[in-house]
Structure formats: C-alpha cells, structure tokens
Amino acid sequence: MTASRTTDRPVVVGVDGSATARSAARWAARDAALLRSEIEMIASANLSADDPHVLEQHGIDPLRTRCERALAETRRVVEDSTDAPEPLKITTRVVDDAPITALLEASEHARMLVLGNRGHMAGHRVALGSVTTAVAEHCRCPLTVVRDSASRWPRASVVVGTDGSPGGRRAVDAAFAAAAVREVPVTVVHAWCDTEVVDMSVPCTMSEWPSHRGRAGAWLDDELAGVRRVYPQVAVRHAVTRDRPARALLDHAQAAQLLVVGARGRGGFADLRLGSTTLAVLRAARCPVMVVPHDR
C-alpha cells in the first residue's frame, strides 16, 4: 500500500507496559507508515498511575525507570512491526502529569491518539479501562482503541455507522479516508429499531419494515453522495438493518479491520460527551474502534 499524503501531526500512543499498549503501538505503526506521520509515545510517571504502596516504599524514581523501560520495549515493538520503505520517526517521553491529563493535552496537537482498551492495572475481565474511557469522552482528535487480540489488517473492510447526525457524518468522512489509504471497501451501517428511528415520525414495526427499508436505502444513498464523490475509488456496501445500532455495528464489524463511530449520535443528550452506542462498541468490539470527536 502507498500512502496518499503526508501529515505533520503525529500519531500519539499511550504506553504503560501492558500487552494492549504494545498492540496499540503496532497498530499505530502501520497507520503512521501509511500516512507518513511521526509516532509520539507517552508514558506517565505520575503518582496516580501506580500502586501507592509501592511508591511509598520506593519513591518515584523506580516508576520513572519502569516508564522508560516500557517506552524502550514498545519502541522496539514498533520498529519490528512495520516494513515501511522509510524508517518511522519515533519520539518518546515520560511525563509527570496523570495519564488522562497528559493524553488529552497531547490530543490537541495529534492527528490521532491510539490506546489499548485496558492498561496494566485492569483485570482480564475489564473490557474498557478507566483511562481509555475518560480519554474517549474528552479527546480532541480521533481516538483509536485497540485490543490485544490480533487485528485483521491487510484486506478486511472498514465499517462505519451513521444516523444522519453531524457526528455520524464526521465518522463517515473518517471511515472513507481510512479505507482510501488502505485501499479497502467501506461498509456503511444504518440501523433502525422500534425505539430508534431516524427521520421517521412513527416507529417501524416488523410488518412495516419492508417499505421502511426501501426509504432508508434511498436516504442512505443521498447521505453518502458527497463523500462518494470525494473518494470515488472506495467500494461501498450499504447495510440497512432493523436492529439496535450497537448490535448491528458489532455484527458487521466481526470481520472488519476497523470500526469507525462518532463520539455521539443523534440520540445523545447535549451534555454527554460519549453516546451509549459508542460506549457499547468500545466495550465489546473485537477489532480496533476509531471514535471521531463530535466537535472537531
């Protein structure tokens, strides 16, 4: 694959020494190689980032040393995981701020922020770590959350959900851009159910579904007309389904390399930074999930 453009904004990766952070770094390396962007890796040596009992005994120096070691190990993972024709430019830094503060500050200048779905402090049954959740709610650039399982990278499609909201349209734009640079198709999911109907004055019952499906398909064609003109090379598959949005997205993303969602869709309240559908797919999706902020 050949990168279509170069960007001077880096891909920022949060590093804490966990397996998921290393998976996130590998994903970020592939993405950075495609877009010829730099990688910036950040580790926090803040007191809140570690066990206070260990810090009482050993102080902050061992924590800073562990951060430096984690960054060095992750850097080796990144360098070994890409076969880009040109070496990636990688910078690493240990910060004194708490992880959430440092990552949100970095998101102001990043092209993308990449995190593992849970850090080294989270148990195996935790689907989404507290740091990742907080960053997803307030991130100023697109955030991609990566699990420690192997992702389908080379030819799998990009999946995106849209509901006609501004957030949904931004997610569609990001999904088409990602698919174009990866030279893969896009599957656009538009989901209806009895209580979540877009641009309809009445709920859609099962008996009414066939006629509503046709109207939904026509609406989706119109909704995608502009982005298809921008990315004519991207093959598109429509998926209009009578289901709850999160369940429909998770179903179609089972064989995807990336799932793209807006931070908040049409159904979200104005004071909520992260919608229920977005939070549900972040917790359950097996592939990487990109969250596109609603105000950027």
TrEMBL record:
Q: Name one Pfam family in it.
A: Usp
According to the UniProt entry, where is the signal peptide?
Answer: none
Q: Where is the UspA domain?
A: 9-147, 158-293
Keyword Transcription regulation on entry: no
What is the top-level taxon of the source organism?
Answer: Bacteria
Kindly indicate whether the keyword ATP-binding belongs to this entry: yes
Q: Which UniProt keywords apply?
A: ATP-binding, Nucleotide-binding
Give the UniProt family note. Answer: Belongs to the universal stress protein A family.
* Name under which the protein is recorded: Universal stress protein
Q: Tell me the organism.
A: Gordonia westfalica
